[in-house]
Protein: WD repeat-containing protein 20
Amino acid sequence: AAEGGGKEMNEIKTQFTTREGLYKLLSHSEYSRPNRVPFNSQGSNPVRVSFVNVNDQSGNGDRLCFNVGRELYFYIYKGVRKAADLSKPIDKRIYKGTQPTCHDFNHLTATAESVSLLVGFSAGQVQLIDPIKKETSKLFNEERLIDKSRVTCVKWVPGSESLFLVAHSSGNMYLYNVEHTCGTTAPHYQLLKQGESFAVHTCKSKSTRNPLLKWTVGEGALNEFAFSPDGKYLACVSQDGFLRVFNFDSVELHGTMKSYFGGLLCVCWSPDGKYIVTGGEDDLVTVWSFVDCRVIARGHGHKSWVSVVAFDPYTTSVEESDPMEFSGSDEDFQDLHFGRDRANSTQSRLSKRNSTDSRPVSVTYRFGSVGQDTQLCLWDLTEDILFPHQPLSRARTHTNVMNATSPPAGSGGANPGSNGNSITTPGNSVPPPLPRSNSLPHSAVSNAGSKSSVMDGAIASGVSKFATLSLHDRKERHHEKDHKRNHSMGHISSKSSDKLNLVTKTKTDPAKTLGTPLCPRMEDVPLLEPLICKKIAHERLTVLIFLEDCIVTACQEGFICTWARPGKVGLLSSQNQANSPSGTVV
Structure:
């Protein structure tokens, strides 16, 4: 599926087809600097794009912000409806001595008259601006007393009008409140919580000041973080190659994963919060189950580093054959992990996937990735990967991880006759510990086992109708192995075993994590192939955003491209009226 390299214009794809139809590049909906000249991006920070909808009366409420080099632009985004008019940015700023690196709108407070935009900078500062009122209200870390390193990611805390989180290439993250000052002296910190490879400090001062919290996570730069859809969890990816998922409020580590090699550069959550996808310097996309705390698939299609991963909530499909009610276990499952119900219909239908009454529900998650190889890949995460329910031809990939310790299914070693109860009620007994020399002492297992069994019970009752007994037996044992490594982490103090302290050493020995639940071998998990893999730019790609009518991509030359979804091209291209600068409203 992959397209060849080379710089010739004819190699750049302007359309592609998937099962849902034809996606088409709208050349006149391209946003860039007003002069449309490709930006010479050597040594520059990645071009990033942020969207916000201000709900204005005209129905044209989308606004976009993007950074190119030292410049920051704010435009009305006309998407598939109208040609872009680059001569009229609502706001444009040029910075001296520092460059914008990332930005984020507050969606809660946005109106047609005012938006709150946070901008992070290469020298460590964070600016709060209102590009509609053209105001600069505040500058945080102005004197660089809090952190001198580049801002890698900035985001408003979900549901908050005043709290925001900032990550730096120092590996630190800071929680700010827009109402508070940053003080005139360097902050003094007091340890709030310490865990495996992370520490959280509060700021000691007589009056409340920023930062409210300082997180130190892993080794090297913290490249990106993302809040779960319900805002309760925070996924962080770092240059040390680790994904770490925290409960944001209780500041506890929920689980970890290690890249195949190299740093992890990007992270995103599925719309229902059940899966996390990462991309990085191993050229792979990795799918990690939030509930099981394990890698469930990897995807190979890129030829270079993966710079952005994103789920497409509009193509994530749930097909129901009959309206169904929640089973009791599924409600428990919801309470366990996400607490509050979600309003979004796709999310609620996705959560129903676990309650299987009489007829199965089919679910497919769509996600995309872009990379430094200038390619866009689209991926489907399907039933056979999410719920391996029979000894498929692919069963080998699911079972090899166990070969060292348990015979494969069908050899009699799985003993299907005796484990019937443990599938529906795994709380009855803790599965036997695996004879692994690098596992934790068994006392830690029983603790983790009880926690995992609650989760197993919720999942198993949902999917047992599809599952063979022997496969589930393996799944539980695999699960328990994960929990020894992950769930017990939060309860272990800094005096924990060497195995867990791996991450705190400056250089993690990849040989010690490869083949463990942190980083399974390639042959031990399913390998996804991309639905499409297309070269769509001359320079490395830095943006991938899924909107209702289109997909938005951007490359390091500073061109922001709009790809109309099937059937969404509208009058703009179909009647070829894009030549007029104003275009035509559909």
Summary: The longest strand covers residues 362-371. The chain has a mean pLDDT of 77. DSSP finds ten helices and 33 strands in the chain. The longest helix spans residues 442-463.
